[in-house]
Queue: 4 jobs
Job 1
Amino acid sequence: MNSPATVVISGAGTGIGRAVARRMAAEGLHVTAVGRRREPLERLADQLGQNVDVIAADVGTEMGAVTVASHIVSVGRSCVAVVNAAGGLSAGGGSPDDLEKIRRTWQESFESNVLTAVLLVEALREMLELNSGRVVLISSVAALRGSGGGPYGAMKAALHSWVYDLARELGAHGGTANAVAPGFVPDTEFWTGRLTEESRRQRAGQTLVGREGNPEEIASLIAWLLGPDGGWVTGQILSPNGGVVLGR
């Protein structure tokens, strides 16, 4: 690709992040695929070819976020969009009398679901402002209705408040910021080991359309937000969830 522009996608090795990377590359865009594990990123690169760079880094840390930004500069590219698909469930909650374990669980969830977005965007902020860049944060329907316990829904909800401020700040430079809060999309690592055939059918049956979603459907919405027709949509929480939670 001759253009120096790149779309940075965290959590790109699996699930929704991988689907977004494939979609962007198919549209002729260069992708900088970021994740903590190199192996799934390398498999993605084998599929996508020269339209992708891979960076193994934990963007929930300062060093990881700086590694991504430094790489982009070193190879002569510039970031025009960020899709933050990193995140997930933390290890476990603990009993009500085990406050130390509860504290660790919430702290880990904050680092995994909030700081992965904040640090990466801030590390790339100068490039985003220069290029009227666009940001999409991957949230969850759990942020709209709760997650049934633990910190996950609360942490994803924190992204909603932040994206409003981010939209104002990037808007001054012609950029946009939105959050996408998917419903039940089981073909991701988030659900690995957590579903039976029956529970999967039950969750799909809770939707108004009677089926589960898939990563490619979420990727298509994100691609629209990053594409030529999405430039007037900003500061929004878009929830493709099959009607489990209706518009608010």
Job 2
Amino acid sequence: MGTGTAVWATNYRSEFADFEGVTYLNAALQGPLPLDAARQAQAALEWKTHPYRLPDSVYFDLPDRIREKVARVIGGHIEEIAVTTGASAGMAAVAASIDWRPGDEVLVGRGEFPAHFSTWLRYEQSGKLRVRVVEPRGRFISADDYIEAIGPQTRLISASYVRFDNGARLDTVGLARACEKVGAALLLDITQSAGTMPMNIRDLGASMAVSSGYKWLLGPYGVGFFWVAREWIDRLPLGAVYFMALEGARNLHAMPTANVRPVPGARRWDSAETANFTNLAAFDSSLDLVLRIGTDVVERWIDSLVNEIIDGLPRTRCVLASPAERERRGPYVCITACDPNDTVALYQKLRAAEVSVSLRETALRIAPHIYNTTEDISRLMSVLSD
């Protein structure tokens, strides 16, 4: 029995709803909510219809469970995790927490996800910093491209570990060393990788990392996390602090109103209304599923499906638009029509055949997950070849 067959023997497809005949290969856009996570969200709604059933402890215990499970997924520590509403919320927390000086530079790669630009917009317009766009010298942006762009004014590099538009994975270790030499921070967006591979976040060399939780981590829309390396927690000036991140806030009957101080650790960057009962109850369950399966198993299964896509790609119609080498690629693959002008038509053809992928820039992003089967890939190949 091969590795892929052994993984699928557990039949993780049963953890999810019926997709109504759709071949869903779009986890990089939205991961489907597992059935148990939907049940947990419904149960949390009952707290609002019957609020007298809502225990005080849930305001803290629920987000703390998220912290603990996220830390296990990314190989971090619970005190380094803030609970947010998504990657953008974490990036906004970074922007608000740094004491910017005129002339400071933030480096962003050409074609990055828009949040890497919009986060810094107000600070750039007010003259507090300058965003400098890094041009790739090759087809995919590399660590060397960023390193070459680092200058004496570089304060932060804002980059995706895995790019949303082509699936290219950034070699972060050398980049982190280059940042350290000039005292710059490396902010990584790990949205398109968290949950799909075994990870030790510190090994990536980042100062901070952000992620949405509604893609590969299978949570509801509006969940995410912000990781801060321990040594950076005290280096970042204090930004906005939600009152439940204050010392003594757990005692709801006598909350602090004088000599207020944030608790130690990353909780000071929690998004407001941190407990967000419905979303976090569902996310708690989704993380349980990811941890129960294991990110090593998820990685092997996705790899086996992506390899099928690459090997079976009809070369007379399509070409690979992601790095061919596995170590340079994230958990999905992008393709284009041989004539790029035909890519939109190919996307529409897949939609008509009820095969769900994403159109990103001039490429189709195909993102299978643990619920997909080899039959799903065969259906995709059939439509691409027809």
Job 3
Amino acid sequence: MAITLTKNMTILFQGDSITDCGRGQVGEGEMGYGYAYMASSWMSARYAELGLRFMNRGISGDRIEGIARRWDRDCIRLKPDVVSILAGVNNTWPRYLNDDATPDDSFYNDYYSILKKTRDTLNPQIILCEPFILHISDDIMAWRDDLDPKIEIMRKLATEFDALLVPFDTMFQEASKRANPSYWATDGVHPTPAGHALMAQEWLTCVSGL
């Protein structure tokens, strides 16, 4: 299932640092340097006749509850036709580094609330992207006990809201058979340029078949 592209539609990328990627939070045209920039550039070239508009409102460090707090400002007010969300890893790592866990039910409730508000207010096409970690060490690998249930929640929400799911975690697990996990993300979380390019390619394939 791909999204339906129409002329002059607005596509909004939302998430944390992996989406933010230095966008500077200045001006609606700032896309950063990561997968959102790469994917939007390719789509802009491929579908030039449609005049697609892209926005990036990812904020480094955000958890899903932080995204929910700013949702009116950074989504609803912008009235996008398509919303792509990548969030979740910041709800996992604090459990292991700061003893600051996010219960799965809280993760679900916050995510559900923004999706319901978005559907009820704007009814855009929704894209949900799997959060991910790469197995660069045994310590990072232990995070899967927390992340895997949240990925399952994402998949459940994609079904509930008839959203398109982009399987970034599955993609990186397969990619790590071709190259060392650190090739794709040196710290297991933040993608390298190659990792971002792989994400952009997966996003484009799922979203528009490119």
Job 4
Amino acid sequence: MRILVTGASGFIGRHLVASGMELGNEVVGTMLSPEELENRLPRPPGVEWKRLDLRDGGSVHRVIEDVLPEAVFHLGAQAYVQAALRDPVETFQTNVLGTIHLFEALKKRPPAKGILLASSASAYGTASRLPITEEALLLPTNPYGVSKAAQDMLAYQYSVNFGLRIIRARLFGTTGPGKVGDALNDFAVQVARLERAGEPGQLKVGNLETRRDVSDIRDVLRALWIALERGDPRMPLNIGAGKSYSIREVAAALQRLARVPIQTVIDPALLRPTDEPDNRADISRMKALGYEPKIAIEQTISDALNYWRAESS
């Protein structure tokens, strides 16, 4: 199967293209610039890479005409809440306008196996009831979440109006060794640096009381393939662990694993103006499709710390 992965240079994308190759597919991945590939994340041989700025509609149409994919994973996005707060315009240009460009191009060349949109739990915002089901209202509390809610709604209307098979996968936290920009890896990077210095130090943290539904990338990859193969465009799918962990628990686990004494210290720069207290997912729909998370959070934390220990050595 010929697969196109937008945003393939990102954390999930790099693992997804590697998984696609291992499954015997022909994989084309897009990147914004070649520099995005210059890290230790998987870069399997055989993947065809194309530069693509989703904000450029002409380029999007040309890539689709050139690749003629049988399946598309749409991961391309500006994916950071803080960046969206600083520059909501750029976030909407990439996430919303870019998605329109992609769907308009795919209208002319519908992929036989369908499209998977990587939406986000940020579209839900603060939940009034836990666990969060797919029927919960979309009430995002930051520009990034609003952009993902818009993507989700665009996917539904392109399915209804134009017959595109678009699966809406609402991803909760996804992490693993080598990710940049999430609390677990940010903490692990700090711990690895303190260990290298060989002296007691401080772990700078934000709000420790928030709880997040977080899954290991290895589980999420399995979920994405299942969703593409078995999902129904009429029914969005929560992809998560089905349980949540406090940021305090993650920090404490890393303190226990650290090779030097570490004290946690609140850094005001890491606090957000709004922060959902908990976002535990109801993953009943994914379980009905045959998905079950397998990787324990303790394993993910240990693997992430070992990754950054090697990176800083």
